[in-house]
């Protein structure tokens, strides 16, 4: 189990994701260029990329990173699934979107690959931090 202090950043980021993903549809900004460029999927991938990296860092902080990348990716991807299912709640005026779920998962998988690559190079999982 990761050190509780190491989980704080991941927990706070999870809260940010939850607030953004569960914001009622009527409160979301509408931009024509946003739909044109489909930045929504990039935003989803980025949110869950960061989530998986923060989780990976927390698992490594415990000192036993045996399958830390797998766990970080799995937890972030499952959290992405949960937020997408919650978006389907009628009260929010949003909808579940399989493409968002795919973007969430791709972001988490990319973070797992990125974290493993950085560790193999002897670098800290998170850029701009110490090992």
Describe the protein.
The protein has one domain. Helix 3 crosses helix 5. The longest helix is centred in the middle third of the chain and has 23 residues. The protein is built from five helices and no strands. It has 131 residues and is an all-alpha fold.
Could you write a compact summary of the structure shown?
This protein is mainly α. It is built from 5 helices and no strands.
Q: What is the straight-line distance between the termini?
A: 19 Å
Average of the residue pLDDT scores: 84
Low-confidence stretches: none
Total domain modules: 1
The share of residues in helices is 55-70%
What series of H and E elements makes up the topology? HHHHH
Assembly of the depicted chains? single chain
What's the helix count? Answer: 5
Kindly provide the radius of gyration, computed on alpha-carbon positions and rounded to a whole number of angstroms: 16 Å
Structural category is mainly alpha
Strand content: under 5%
> What gross morphology would you assign?
elongated
Major sheet characteristics: none
Number of strands: 0
Key terms for this structure?
131 residues, mainly alpha, 5 helices
Topology:
Layout: H1 4-21, H2 32-37, H3 39-61, H4 68-87, H5 98-120
Helix pairs in contact: 1-3, 1-4, 3-4, 3-5, 4-5
């Amino acid at each position: 189990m990761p050190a509780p202090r190491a989980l704080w950043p991941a927990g706070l980021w999870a809260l940010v994701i939850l607030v953004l993903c569960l914001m009622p549809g009527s409160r979301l900004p509408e931009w024509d260029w946003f739909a044109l460029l489909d930045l929504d999927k990039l935003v989803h991938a980025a949110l869950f990329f960061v989530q998986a990296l923060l989780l990976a860092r927390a698992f490594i902080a415990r000192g036993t990173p045996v399958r830390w990348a797998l766990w970080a990716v799995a937890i972030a991807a499952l959290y992405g699934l949960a937020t997408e299912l919650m978006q389907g709640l009628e009260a929010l005026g949003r909808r579940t979107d399989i493409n968002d779920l795919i973007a969430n998962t791709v972001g988490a998988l990319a973070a797992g690959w990125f974290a493993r690559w950085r560790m193999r190079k002897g670098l800290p999982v998170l850029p701009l931090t110490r090992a």
